Amino acid sequence: MALTPLYRRHSLGLAAVHADLENHAAAQEEVLTGTPGSVIIRRNAAGATFYVRQHYDALRAKRDRYLAGPVGSPVADALADRWRQRIADANDVIRSAKMLLREGYLGLEPKPFAAIAPLVDHGLFRAGAVLVGSHAFGAIANKLGIRVSAFPTEGIDIARAQALKLAAGAPGGFLGLLRASGIAFVAVPGFDPHTPSTRFKETGRSRFQVDLLAPAAGREVTVRAVPELDAHATALPYLGYLTAVTQPGIVISHHGVAAVRIPMPERYAVHKLVVSELRTGRSAKSAKDLRQAAILLAATAELFPGSVSEAWGALAPGARRPAKAALGKALPILAVHPKALEELAGLA
Question: What is the pTM of this model?
Answer without folding.
Answer: 0.94
